[in-house]
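Render this sequence as a predicted structure.
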Amino acid sequence: MALMPYHYRLAELWTLHRRRQLTDAETMEMAHCLAANAKYCWDVVTLQNLSLAAYQAGDMEWLHEVCAQLDALEEKQVMKRKAGDDYA
């Protein structure tokens, strides 16, 4: 699982939070980053579980399809980052 821009921003906001109270805008941004992180994590974990099931079933075609979906998920995030959609 690659680090995405919202991971970096979340770390920055957390650091700020330890020093001072976040502004309303920063609090909303942190919530947005947390939501993006949760979705990305669930998508990755779902595909990882499917890949394990495919492997255990001995279905190599399915396994390759799921691995391709994992690669595409990461590539999609990288493309959004390049396009400037930091909180994809």
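Summary. The helical segments are 5-19, 24-57, 60-82. The chain has a mean pLDDT of 89.
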